[in-house]
């Protein structure tokens, strides 16, 4: 929520970085499966099935939580406005494939961030309703 509180801008859509995601529960499932099934050394990419632009993740999160979307700005402007640590994260852009997870027999609870965001939106809506918002 600190990102929404600070209102620091995201990179505009045409220049945005690609990010990969994994829910903590899915990550735990992957780790356990790897420990139980892998004999020797094997590398697995622990991410969901859908790399997407970072701004899309934050837009979806804002929508799910009922928060206003963060502002967008050109890439170079964002670089000047955010901390070096934050820029290091935002500038990274990779599409990671998780095809090897099939070897582990893992079924992700949240195969994409959209699955998680739908659940979060339902939970957030219930919280707003019970809080009288």
Could you list some keywords that capture this structure?
single chain, 133 residues, mainly alpha, two-stranded parallel sheet, two-stranded antiparallel ribbon, 7 helices, 6% strand, globular, disordered C terminus
Question: Would you kindly provide a written description of the structure presented here, covering whatever features stand out?
Answer:
51% of the residues lie in helices and 6% in strands. By secondary structure, it is mainly α. The chain has one domain (2-54, 71-112). The strands form two sheets. It has a two-stranded parallel ribbon. The protein has a two-stranded antiparallel sheet with strand order 2-3. The longest helix has 18 residues, at 113-130.
Fold blueprint:
Elements: H1 2-6, E1 10-11, E2 18-19, H2 24-37, E3 52-53, H3 54-65, E4 72-73, H4 75-81, H5 84-91, H6 101-104, H7 113-130
Helix pairs in contact: 3-7
């Amino acid at each position: 929520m600190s990102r929404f509180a600070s209102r620091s801008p995201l990179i505009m859509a045409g220049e945005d970085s690609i990010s990969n995601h994994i829910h903590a529960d899915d990550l735990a499932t992957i780790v356990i499966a790897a420990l139980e099934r892998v004999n020797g050394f094997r590398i697995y990419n622990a991410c969901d099935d859908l790399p997407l632009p970072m701004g899309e993740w934050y837009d979806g999160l804002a929508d799910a939580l009922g928060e206003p979307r963060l502002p967008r700005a050109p890439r170079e402007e964002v670089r000047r406005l955010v901390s070096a640590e934050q820029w290091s994260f935002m500038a990274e852009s990779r599409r990671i494939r998780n095809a090897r997870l099939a070897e582990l027999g893992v079924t992700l609870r949240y195969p994409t961030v959209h699955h998680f965001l739908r659940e979060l939106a339902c939970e957030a809506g219930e919280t707003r309703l019970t809080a009288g918002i």
